[in-house]
Amino acid sequence: MLASYAGSFGIVEIDTTYYGVPSPETVAAWARRTPATFRFTAKLPGTATHVPEPARGIVHEDVRAFRASLEPLLAAGKFACALMQFPNGFRPGADAERHVTALRDALAGIDLVAEFRHADWQTDRTLAFLRDLGVGLVAVDEPQLASLPRPLTDATSPIAYVRFHGRNAATWWSGDATTRYDYAYREDELEPWVDRLVDIASNPDVREVLAFFNNHRRGQAARDAQMFAAMLATRFPREQIGAILPLAADAQLSLDLG
């Protein structure tokens, strides 16, 4: 399936690495079965990002295993960046900053982006902190609930990363992974993001914009990525628009500004 998929699309976000570290042999097969220009991003294991407060600053052994497992992709030039997805309970403070820094140090040489799921991270201090580390801040579209981040266009590294989670406010806290992400975007909901991506792309420090649709439970992600790509095509030259990826789980749009 991967070889067939890679015949049509250019990049994929690996979600399974959040649940367990794949073997280097498995990752080597990914590299071997995809074209030379195909690329991957991957989530850090949950053991690295979803940690109790007393454990912050301590890097779980899974992080080193994750780093080692990526070697075939790194050697082939097929790895774009790793995603640190932190939970809503991961709030800003000295311990949290120490943990992010520890992960950055443990993954030296790999481009990293961070998704914070609490609005308290949306401060000038966070922007400065991530820029100092060379870590990209993930922009998100999700329900506009009190503690969740608002849409943004700030970029803190050469890779700008956007994730569309859907807007199921009623089931965001009470639902499961099926109901939380079972959402279909309307064109008018995505229109402001076209303007935001124009703003992000105009930042001279940004090399590449990666946008992922995570509203995937009934295949909406693929449809919405196609719709969004068509909207972007009216604002960007076609040669700057990368791959639209209808994944089994996610769909991703790559806007290569290089």
Q: Could you describe the 3D structure shown?
A:
A 9-stranded mixed sheet has the order 1-2-3-4-5-6-7-9-8. It has one domain: Protein of unknown function UPF0759 (TIM Barrel), CATH 3.20.20. The longest helix has 15 residues, at 187-201. The protein has helices at 2-6, 24-32, 46-49, 61-69, 71-75, 94-106, 124-133, 177-180, 187-201, 220-233; strands at 11-14, 39-43, 79-85, 112-115, 135-141, 159-164, 208-213, 241-246, 251-256. Helices cover 34% and strands 20% of the residues. It starts with a helix and ends with a strand. By secondary structure, it is of the alpha/beta class.
Topology (SSEs and partners):
Elements lengths: L1 H5 L4 E4 L9 H9 L6 E5 L2 H4 L11 H9 L1 H5 L3 E7 L8 H13 L5 E4 L8 H10 L1 E7 L17 E6 L12 H4 L6 H15 L6 E6 L6 H14 L7 E6 L4 E6 L2
Parallel strand pairs: 1-2, 2-3, 3-4, 4-5, 5-6, 6-7
Antiparallel strand pairs: 7-9, 8-9
Helix pairs in contact: 9-10
